[in-house]
User: Fold this.
Amino acid sequence: MTTIAFIGLGIMGAPMAGHLVDAGFDVVGHNRSPGPVAALAERGGRTAGSVAEAVAGADVVALMLPDSPDVEAVLLGDDGVLAHAPAGTLVIDFSSIRPDVSSALAARAVERGSSLVDAPVSGGQAGAQNASLSIMVGGTDVDVARARPVLEVVGSTVVHVGPNGAGQTVKAANQLVVAGHLQLLAEAVVFLEAYGVDTTAALEVLGAGLAGSTVLQMKGEHMLGRSFDPGFRIDLHHKDLGIVTSAAREAGVVVPLGGHLAQLMASARAQGDGSLDHSALLRGVLRASGRDLT
Assistant:
């Protein structure tokens, strides 16, 4: 039985770890707050009080952490993965971080006798709960093949997109496209409401045409009902758009709409909406239009 240490049992990590338990893997969970660890134990997983304890006997280490500094600390710290995992351990980083950081961490893993694939995901909380995530994977052919049995438990679409760091690059592009769709959907909803249109019917017909998208399908009702419980927080999308704009600058690529989206996401955070779902970009359009947020 493959032993998987799963570090980071938040909105995304907890259901993913649970699916791995259900699939028959020996899963050892660790999280900064104890609640999700206890829930994993109730589902049949094991618990660890530290990263070092979690990875001590692991064949695979899975990470689902908020940002690049978090991944660096967990991997490289004195109590971290690379200091305590057995030689030959495969690290699967499901986090969304900077591509250059991911590539550097993969090199550090090799120096320590381990290996790393970057495997950021798309699909949000619903995708994690339904094991229907889209996973973009960067790494060597050998390492990706080793990771695939784990990846295919939590994702319905698993695509090897290139070497280390490529998965993070594709995820950044994904977040750029999603943010654009969200903002335009928000503007369309406020526009439709201003004219008294049956917005449910309007989104139904828009969704069946060229304007249709997964964003419209998954987020349209949230906007209409002003229901912004987080499936993916504005705080995290703000971080991801920062990755997009900085990586684009380094590559000499112009992303004018991406830069504007980053500012709109930053404005939402400044207005106190950072903990809300990213569909709450609607609130920014409502504010700008002088309309009631409810």
Notes: The CA atoms of residues 243 and 285 lie 24 Å apart.
